[in-house]
Amino acid sequence: MKRYNDPNLFGIIGIGKFGGALALELIKKGKDVIALDNNPLRLESIKKEIDHVFLIDQISKDALTEAGIASCGTVIVCIGKDIESNLLATLNAKELGVPRVISKAISADHGRVLEKLGAEVVLPEEDMGRRLAQSLCVANALDWLPLCSDFSIIEVIIPSSLDSKNVLELNLRKKYGINIIALIHEGKANGSISPDTILHQGDQMVISGSNESLSTFQKQTNS
Predict the structure, then answer these.
(1) Which of 1, 63, 96, 138 could cross-link with 70 by S-S, CB 3.0 to 4.6 Å?
(2) Quick one: which H or E segment has residue 36?
(3) Which domains does the chain have, with CATH numbers?
(4) In the 8-state DSSP scheme, what is residue 102?
(5) SS3 labels along 80-92
C-alpha cells in the first residue's frame, strides 16, 4: 500500500535561527509543521505557534517515523554545524519515502554529498549573497529571486516614467515580455492586477520574466 505524503505538511529538523524562522513562516502561510530538535529551549520558543513539536535525543529512522516525518510532503533539514547529524537526517528522510528533502549545507563540498543522497541543497549565506549582488546590480531592485538559470522574479521601485499610467497603457507584457505579479503600496500587497490598475512612482512592483527581458525593462524605464 502506497504511503500518502501530505503536500501541506512540512517537517523541520533542527530549530535554530534558520529552522525556527522557516517553521514560523510556514505556519503563517497556513501550512502544517512538524518541528524536531534535541534542544528543549529551542522547541519551547515555538511551542505556542506549532502544535507538533518533538524533542529527539538522536537522529534515527524510528524517531523520525514516530514524529510523523514519513507523512510529510517536504522535509527541510536545518541542522548546521553537526554535519554527521545533518547527513543522517537527510538519508533517513529519503529512506522514509519523503518526496522532497531540502538540506542546509555549510560548504560546497557538504552540498555535493547531500546531492548524492538525493536532497535539494541550500547554502543560506551564499544564496543571500547572490540575491543581494543581483539586486545591487539592477536599478531600483529591492529583491531578486532566480527561479532557474534564465528566469527570475524581482521586486522593484516604480520609476517616474511609469507614474500614473495604467497596466493596459503600459502593456509591459508585449513591450518587454514581463508580467506584473503584485503591487505594494504602504506595505500592503495587491495581487489583483487588472488593465485599469494604475502604477504610482515610489510604490513597489513585483515582476517576472526572463533575465534578459527584466534587464531591458530596467534599462529603458530608468534611463
Answers:
(1) 96
(2) strand 32-37
(3) 6-122 (3.40.50.720), 128-221 (3.30.70.1450)
(4) E
(5) CCCHHHHHHHHHH
Q: In this structure, are strands 32-37 and 52-55 parallel, antiparallel, or unpaired?
A: parallel
- Do the strands 6-13 and 32-37 form a parallel or antiparallel pair, or are they unpaired? parallel
Q: At what angle do helices 108-116 and 83-95 cross, to 10 degrees?
A: 20
Q: How far apart are CA 159 and CA 218, in angstroms?
A: 9
C-alpha cell at 141: 531592485
Best CA proximity match to 135, nearest among 203, 218, 25, 220:
218
pLDDT tens by residue, the chain, 223 residues: 456 789 889 999 999 888 888 898 898 888 999 999 999 999 998 988 998 999 999 899 999 999 999 999 999 999 988 999 999 999 999 999 999 999 999 888 999 999 999 999 888 766 655 555 555 545 555 566 666 667 888 888 888 889 999 999 999 989 999 899 889 888 788 888 899 999 999 898 888 888 888 888 888 887 5
| Sign for the pseudo-dihedral over CA of 156, 160, 165, 169 | negative
